[in-house]
C-alpha cells in the first residue's frame, strides 16, 4: 500500500538544494506502513517507539499525520480504534482521503505475525537521518559557492553530519586477530554450576507429562533467588547445585498466564523465597524466532533487564512458519543463538521428544525435529519419568559442548491449597539414582572390568558391561571402548585368534 502524498520539497529550499533530490530522498514506504500497523496491534510499544521516531520523520505525509493522531490518542488515554484515530485526524485538519475508514483498517493487515514496532521504527528513523543529511549536504554545497566561505569550517560541518548519520549503524563485524585467541579469557560463567553457561543455547526435552516445564520453572526460581537447586530432601544445609543470582525472563506459549502464575507462586513458596526476586514472566507475548524485529526487541529487553537466564516454553510454538523437520530450523536456531550471544544469556528451550528409531539408537536421536536443532545446542537434557516412582524424573545429557553432565534425578513434592486442586507450594528435591546407562557408567564399568581381569576381549567386555548395565546398547559400549583406547586409558592388543584384548595403560 503506497500513497502519492509524498513529502514535497521545502517551500523555501536552501541555496543549492535541488527540489528533485528532496523528492527522491531516502524512504521506506513499507516500513512506515508496518510501523503504524504494529502500533495499532500493540499500542503499549509507543513509549519505546517515540524515543526513535516522531511524526515529521515519516516521508509520506499521510502516514505522518496518522502516526501523530495515534500518538495523540495514546497520550489522552482514548480508546484505541479507527473511530478515535479518525476523530483526531479531523481535529488535526486531515483531508477526507487520510481519514478514510478502509484506508485506516488496512494498516494492521500489513503487519506480519509477531512483528516488532521497534524494528520498523529504526528503519523509519534511519531514512529520516539520511534525508536530513542529504538536505544538509545540499545546503553546504550552496554555502561553498558563497563569497567568504571557510573550507575548513565547511568540511567540519560535513564530517559532523556523517558521524550523526552513522551513530546508530556501526559495523556489525567484529574480526579478531589470532593474538586475541592467546589473550587471557575469563572462566566460563555459569548460572547453574556445571550446567547452564552464559552465554549458551540449551534445550530441555522429553515426552508429554514428564515435568520438564515444571522442572525448568523450579530451576528459574532458584536462579532468580540465588538458591541452590535440587537440594536433597533431608538436607538442611546449602547442598545442591549452586546457582548465581541473576534476573530471569520466562516466555510462555503453552500454559497461559493463570497457570504460569500459579506455578511460580507455588514454587516460590516451596523454596521459601519472597515475591521480590528478579523473575519476570510473559504469557503469549508477540514473539516469533524467525522474525528479525522480534529478535531485536527480545535482545533489547534482555540487555535492559540484565537477564542471565531466558526460558522459552516451547520451541515449536516460536518457530513461526518454519517447518520443524526441515533445514528451515537452521535460521530459527541461528536467531536464538544470536539472542544468547548478544545478550550474554543462558537460553533454555523446552522441546518435545519423538520415539526412538530402534533399540540401539542414541538418546539424542529422539530430540524431535531437524538435525540442525541439536547441532546448534551447547547442552541437551532429556527428561524422563522414573518407571518405579511417578514423582521422580531422571535427567540425562544427550549433548554437551563444555563439560560432562552426568545423569541426575529430581523428585517433585507439592501441596494443594486447602479445599482446592490448585497448587499452594511445590519444589523439586535432588534424588540419588542408580545410573544404568550413561556414558560415564559404561566407562567406569569398562575400566573396572579391565583392571580386575586384564586381557578380556571386545566381545567379553561388551557382554559383561551389558550384564551390569541393561540400558547400555552394544554399539555404545564398543564406541566408548574405542574412545578409551584413543585417549590412552586402555591399551589394545592382539590375543588368541587375533582377537582384540585390553589392559590398563601403565602410568607415565
Outline type? elongated
Strand content: 15-25%
Number of domains: 3
For the record, the CATH architecture of the largest domain stands as: 3-Layer(aba) Sandwich
Query: What is the CATH C level class of the largest domain, in words?
Result: Alpha Beta
> Uncertain runs with pLDDT below 50, 5 residues or more?
1-24, 165-170
Main sheet strand line-up? 5-4-6-7-3-8-9-10-11
Largest sheet: 9 strands, mixed
- The CATH superfamily title of the largest domain: P-loop containing nucleotide triphosphate hydrolases
CATH topology name of the largest domain, in short, is: Rossmann fold
Structural features, described:
By secondary structure, the protein is of the alpha/beta class. The chain folds into three domains: 19-166, DNAb Helicase, Chain A; 189-431, Rossmann fold (3-Layer(aba) Sandwich); 439-504, Arc Repressor Mutant, subunit A (Orthogonal Bundle), CATH 1.10.10.10. The chain has 17 helices and 14 strands. It has helices spanning 19-23, 29-41, 46-49, 61-76, 82-91, 101-109, 117-144, 151-166, 178-182, 212-225, 257-271, 292-305, 329-343, 371-375, 439-452, 458-468, 474-486, and strands at 189-192, 196-198, 200-206, 248-252, 279-283, 309-313, 346-352, 379-386, 389-400, 408-416, 423-431, 456-457, 490-494, 500-504. Strands 5-4-6-7-3-8-9-10-11 form a nine-stranded mixed beta sheet. A three-stranded antiparallel beta sheet has the order 12-14-13. Helix 4 packs across helix 5 (82-91). The protein is elongated, with a radius of gyration of 30 Å.
